[in-house]
Automatic annotation (TrEMBL):
This is Universal stress protein. Residues 11-129 form the UspA domain. The lineage of its organism: Bacteria, Bacillati, Bacillota, Bacilli, Bacillales. PANTHER family: SENSOR PROTEIN KDPD. It comes from Planococcus chinensis. Coiled coil: none annotated. It comes from the Bacteria.
Amino acid sequence: MKKIRGRMDESILVCVFYGPNGERLIKRGNKLAEMLDCPLYILTVDALPFDEFDAEKSAYVERWKELADEFGAEEFVIRDNESRPSAKVIAEVAHDLNITQIVIGQTARSRWEEITKGSFMNSLLREIPFADFHVVSVDRTIKGDEHEEFEKGVRCYLVKDADTYKISFSQTKECQYEGIFFKEIGTDFNNGIFKFMHNNKLYQVEVTDDRIEEPGVVRSCIEKVPSLK
């Protein structure tokens, strides 16, 4: 049930993706909405159509819907089957809903990497200069592991998308190459690294918002690999 909010010059948008961090973000957004006595919105973005979500994704969505109802959110927004970068989708929703503050999860990318290669947050700041951001950090319980910044790897596929590549977790006729995707801990979108084998040598490229950052490297390494078609 929606709560009647007294203040309408402020509004909160919580951006969630798949994983345990989503519930934490929603709770943080609700606290801000209660403090400011303003409307609360929750958004999730996915490249897949809703009816192709697996059981785990569907379970997360149902839980977020429960929280949205429990906290009296104005709306739980699902933008599925999206081919656009997530930052542009978030910007569009934020503009349409007159959002003034956005809650998002922390990326695990190091400060040096952000300086030299940019970050998803920088993309958001460029797309949404009219809103304030609240970046929720993620506690790291594993120390000393070289992969401590990444979740367990999952099988993933590359799909040619104009002059670049994007990752897909479902094998379809459009998929061309196969590898393992390691998602950054704490990020709410598909940021991380994609590893693949070519001529018995392991390669890896960075992924930002579903897309390969250096498509030229991918082309030079794997366009000679037989397609999965």
